[in-house]
Write a structure and sequence with these properties.
The complex is a heterodimer of chains A (about 350) and B (about 130). Chain A is about 20% helix and about 35% strand. Chain A has about 350 residues and is of the alpha+beta class. In chain A, the strands form 5 sheets. In chain A, strands 10-11-12-9-3-13 form a 6-stranded mixed sheet. A 6-stranded antiparallel barrel of chain A has the order 14-17-16-15-18-19. The longest helix of chain A has 13 residues. The N and C termini of chain A lie far apart (about 45 Å). The relative contact order of chain A is 0.15. The model of chain B has no long low-confidence stretch (mean pLDDT about 95). In chain B, the strands form 2 sheets. In chain B, strands 1-2-3-9-8-5 form a 6-stranded antiparallel sheet. In chain B, strands 4-6-7 form a 3-stranded antiparallel sheet. Chain B has about 130 residues and is of the alpha+beta class. Chain B is globular and about 35 Å long. In chain B, a hairpin with a 2-residue loop joins strand 2 and strand 3. Chain B has one domain: Beta Barrel (OB fold (Dihydrolipoamide Acetyltransferase, E2P)), CATH 2.40.50.100. Chain B starts with 8 loop residues before the first strand and ends with a helix. Classes of the chains: A alpha+beta (about 350), B alpha+beta (about 130). At the A-B interface, loops of A face strand 4 of B.
């Protein structure tokens, strides 16, 4: 069965080409993926992300539970609304999912996890929470719209009421707050400023229409992928999965080792691998000549082989970019080769961050 | 349903062929093909002077989604290529049958035109996809 988001009819109205995305019928584009990409880098675009899974964790043990569940430490969160990006691992250190956690207080947190991993995430969270005094509640009654781009905040401001505008005034990046009926967060998946707005389902279509009328361009999953890749953000299922550790997925920074007494799931294995320095690493690749790097292509280096995990044409840069998992000995600025259409092509290794805030980021 | 002009001939591999007279034909890819591929980012064209045979992979259309081979729909010699596509591959999306043309071929045997599909035949072939 295919799921439809509450905005399905609005997509059809806007001429979307719909595709199946892990069981959800979602817009891949509304005509031109590249134009949608540029709208987000240069102006303001919006994505329907209602398929994403919102999970509220509440109760006396909420903090203790999350300190065990995820690799980053929610103890870092002490300002209401502050968000944290992290991963949830199994005992072997494999990434079950990546997620954002919003902190309201020590007994109340909101998690946003991927839709493609919804069932296993919920099952894992349920199992792990058994011994903690917490309530875990999925919140499917909301739609979610990500409005992103240099003009995103200004355009959203034109449709918020005075109270909501006062609430979001001066909000720092990576925060979320309830403003009237909307939960508004300064998060995103594009490398641009903007909001992710959680809205009760009954009001989602109206909000979408108001944003359209305010000049925000609808953008599909195609543009979402090129934008996140330019920004160097991982996509679960491509750049990492349960067979990959955070150390091999450019997510080491999301592991908190500060509190030695904290025991999080996967800690022992990750500590061992970190000590050994044996894990491969995720780097960025750039190809300045013609051609497009694509996921699955083999990377050849003097230290051994690697593989492209995500690759695309970068509309902002005008050439192809990729993320690749390669042996740890490969260095930034090295030239390595990718096997493309039976030929070996030179590519340059950089940090996986290609374009943000409208321009080249390396 | 995408546009399939009745005055053109087609190959099942989604190329269109326009008879320009004097044994010259223009070749491009159909609107249906560009829709399937999505936004074009690079087009690699054959060399002028190259001899091509029906079914040879002679060009590559690389879109945001995939790299796709373009096959010669007819046998002959490439006499001109659309250099505009070097800088503006999106012409293939915006005007598949016009400014998005790819190359011109001086055909060896004009009779071969008859073996290509007409618009109706091509429409049926994509229905079966």
């Amino acid at each position: 069965m295919t799921n439809k988001t509450v905005l399905h009819a609005k997509h059809l109205e806007a001429g979307a080409k719909m595709v199946d995305f892990h069981g959800w019928e979602m817009p891949i584009n509304y005509g031109s993926q590249i134009e949608e990409h540029h709208a987000v880098r240069q102006d303001a675009g919006m994505f329907d992300v209602s398929h994403m899974t919102i999970v509220d964790v509440e109760g006396a043990d909420a903090k203790a539970f999350l300190r065990k569940l995820v690799i980053n430490d929610v103890d870092k969160l002490n300002v209401a609304g502050k968000a944290l990006y992290t991963g949830m691992c199994n005992e072997e250190g494999g990434v079950i999912d990546d997620l954002i956690i919003y902190f309201f207080n020590d007994t109340s947190y909101r998690l946003v996890v991927n839709s493609a991993t919804r069932e296993k995430d919920l099952a894992w969270i349920a199992t792990q929470s058994a011994d903690f005094a917490v309530t875990v509640t999925e919140r499917p009654e909301f739609g979610m719209i990500a409005v992103q781009g240099p003009e995103a905040k200004a355009k959203v401001a034109t449709i918020l009421n005075a109270e909501q505008n006062a609430a979001v005034e001066g909000m720092k990046p990576f925060f979320g707050l309830q403003a009237g009926e909307l939960f508004i967060a300064t998060t995103g998946y594009t490398g641009e400023a903007g909001y992710e707005i959680v809205v009760p389902e009954a009001q989602a279509a109206d909000l979408w229409q108001q944003l359209l009328d305010a000049g925000v361009k609808p953008a599909g999953l195609g543009a979402r992928d090129t934008l996140r890749l330019e920004a160097g953000m991982n996509l679960y299922g491509l750049d990492m999965d349960e067979s990959v550790t955070p150390l091999a997925a450019n997510m080491a920074w999301t592991i908190s080792w500060d509190d030695e007494a904290r025991d999080f799931i996967g800690k022992a294995k990750l500590a061992e691998l970190r000590e050994a320095g044996s894990e491969p690493k995720l780097v960025g690749l750039i190809l300045e000549e013609k051609g497009v790097l694509r996921s699955g292509l083999k990377v050849v280096t003097e230290h051994g082989e690697g593989v492209i995990t995500s690759g695309t044409f970068s509309p902002t840069l005008g050439h192809s970019i990729a993320m690749a998992r390669v042996p740890r000995a490969v260095k930034l600025e090295d030239t390595v080769q990718v096997e493309m259409r039976k030929k070996l092509v030179d590519v340059k290794v950089i940090k996986p961050s290609f374009a943000r805030n409208g321009k080249k980021a390396f | 349903m995408s546009n399939i002009p009745s005055e053109l001939k087609y190959a099942t591999s989604h190329e269109w062929v326009r008879n320009e007279g004097n044994g010259i034909v223009t070749v491009g890819i159909t609107e249906h093909a560009q829709e399937l591929l999505g936004d074009m980012v690079f087009v690699e064209l054959p060399e002028v002077g190259e001899s091509v045979s029906t079914g040879d992979d002679v060009a590559v259309a690389e879109s945001v989604k995939a790299a796709s081979d373009i096959y010669a729909p007819i046998t002959g010699e490439v006499v001109e290529v659309n250099e505009e596509l070097e800088d503006s591959p999106e012409l293939v999306n915006s005007d598949a049958y016009g400014d998005g043309w790819m190359f011109k071929v001086k055909i060896e045997d004009e009779g071969e035109l008859e073996s290509l599909l007409d618009a109706e035949g091509y429409a049926n072939s994509i229905d079966e996809d």
